[in-house]
Design brief:
mainly alpha, 76% helix, globular, single chain
Length: 498
Amino acid sequence: MTLLRPFLANFLGNAPVWYKQTIALFLVLNPLVLWFFGPALTGWLIVAEFIFTLAMALKCYPLLPGGLLAIEALAMGLTSVDALYVEVARNLPVILLLMFMVAGIFFMKDLLLLIFTRILLGVRSKTRISLLFCGAAAVLSAFLDALTVTAVIIAVAMGFYAVYHKAASQQGAKEGYALDHDGHIAEASHNDLSQFRAFLRSLLMHGAVGTALGGVATMVGEPQNLLVAKTVGWDFSQFFLQMLHVSLPVLVAGLITTLVLEKTHWFGYGARLPLSVRKILEEFSEEEARNRTPEECASLWVQGVAALALVAGLAFHVAEVGFVGLLIIILITAFSGINDEHRIGKAFQESLPFTSLLVVFFTIVAVIHEQHLFRPVIEFVLAQPIPQQPGLFFVANGLLSMISDNVFVATVYITEIRQALDAGAISRDHFETLAVAINTGTNLPSVATPNGQAAFLFLLTSAIAPLVRLSYGRMVYMALPYTLVLGSVGLTAVIMGS
């Protein structure tokens, strides 16, 4: 017992005891369920357990308990290392993006903070700011990548939070200062800090939903869009036009939802920027402008040129997104006086833990694939009358994308209907109609949970989430009105267009 006690104390660090016991119970229970009930039920159980680790992300970073579940799934033979490698290889562009693009955005944070501080201070209406965040994220995500846009939003929110927290605590220049510690915040500032957190939470969620609104519209908006386009044989303009009867009404409905939520203060939205915070941000902006050195001005110009290179590189798809991110890192560091490994390494602290978590997630996806957990749903939908299939595909894709990777769901479904087309079971026109349903189904209802979209999962596990108290449950709650609106409007548009 003397030796066992420190091991138990170290298990999952400072996570609550009940959480440690729950994860231990999962690890003991899974082999028993496999023995008595078989791999299919065990696979669904592990999916549910992994979702639990995501939901408890603020108790313990999901990489640790989720990784233990993934290792156990591999050990029990629910999937294989080769199957995991296939999943990782298929999603290598996403991994490269996280490794390099998020780090590239880190080096642009000074420029982003400067631009968005001026926007925030120049636009006093919270409703207009929210519409601006949601609309800008939608437009950018249609031509760039949703994860890149999310990284920008996170960097901006992190910058705002750091400026206020350091000023309110008056500890910013002292050794050992931490953004996640409120002990030095004056009692009178606690309410303002709480309101500022709510303000940032709403902007983050509006921006994240905006990436889904724009991401559904073009073949480059989301990874699965490109897969669907290649399988069907659509080019950029054909894809855009095929999706337009769904993407346009959904965009309008999404922006109206943003407006209504801000006006009604429902679902945790509507918080305004406290006057004390606005004053601190104004003083920060003025002080930064006064004290900015010629070298810092030159660095801002370099970041601006790099931002143009980023937009051009992504818009014209000159290379994989991750490679463009690496280009940005090299350009900014080479011409901004950053030449030591320690300063460069800081840029990767945000992205690499999430990249590791994503590989663990691919293990769970491999379990779903290897155990054919979604096959009954696919067979049921394809067995229904043809006029009902587009709506059912939208619903089925949406529900499955809420709990699994939407790229994987789209891959499974588009492959199945392609085989049906090649076998002569469906016509070309019906095949294209189902492809629209699959693409929109994986993009829109998947905003319901962080599991469905990598951008949402990235936001949940980012450094800003615990600072503004954005937990899994709160994300699901705040996404609920968008889920209902986007899902219902998208389903209606799919049915009417079929």
